[in-house]
């Protein structure tokens, strides 16, 4: 049903080509006529050149595009789609703000702990159960697995 609504053609006899208006053919609205070149919102063409030159963030471009849309000319499906897009953008921004990151030393530390544990166990087996700490025997394996376990438990808390 939703696909049928999205693919309907205009009912007044126009084809899609006749009903669409390009940016060059669009006449400025009364709100656009009072704006000068030094306003806060650049025109659509200026915004496009800004994006190519990486001068302004894409969020500002999106606000320009949103402000140039005349909602009275949109179909109900397009209005719902734009509303859903705004809600999704808001939800993503809120989830990003709530995300906590680990300090920069966290990942190298747990990787190092796991590698130390692995090297400890390899040295123990290659030296016929005598080193890294002579005299404690198979407790060397417990130490090696302890390093590996602590490193692995740190990976669980990695954000």
From TrEMBL:
It is a multi-pass membrane protein. The keyword tRNA processing does not apply. The chain crosses the membrane at residues 105-126, 138-158. Residues 1-10, 84-95 have a biased composition (Basic and acidic residues). This is Cell division protein CrgA. HAMAP family: CrgA (MF_00631). The gene is crgA. Involved in cell division. Belongs to the CrgA family. GO terms for biological process: cell division. InterPro entries: CrgA. Keywords: Cell cycle, Cell division, Cell membrane, Membrane, Transmembrane, Transmembrane helix. Residues 1-41, 75-95 are annotated as: Disordered. It is found in: Cell membrane. Residues 16-31 have a biased composition (Low complexity). GO terms for cellular component: plasma membrane.
């Amino acid at each position: 049903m939703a696909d049928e609504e999205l693919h309907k053609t205009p009912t007044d006899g126009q084809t899609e080509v006749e009903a669409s208006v390009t940016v060059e053919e669009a006449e400025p609205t009364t709100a656009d006529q009072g704006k000068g070149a030094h306003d806060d919102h650049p025109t659509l063409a200026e915004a496009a050149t800004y994006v190519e030159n990486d001068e302004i963030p894409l969020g500002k471009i999106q606000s320009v595009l949103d402000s140039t849309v005349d909602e009275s000319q949109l179909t109900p499906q397009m209005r719902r789609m734009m509303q859903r897009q705004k809600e999704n953008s808001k939800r993503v921004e809120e989830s990003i703000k709530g995300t906590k990151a680990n300090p920069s030393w966290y990942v190298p530390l747990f990787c190092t702990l796991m590698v130390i544990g692995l090297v400890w166990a390899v040295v123990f087996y290659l030296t016929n159960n005598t080193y890294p700490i002579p005299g404690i025997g198979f407790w060397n394996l417990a130490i090696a697995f302890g390093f590996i376990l602590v490193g692995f438990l740190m990976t669980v808390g990695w954000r």
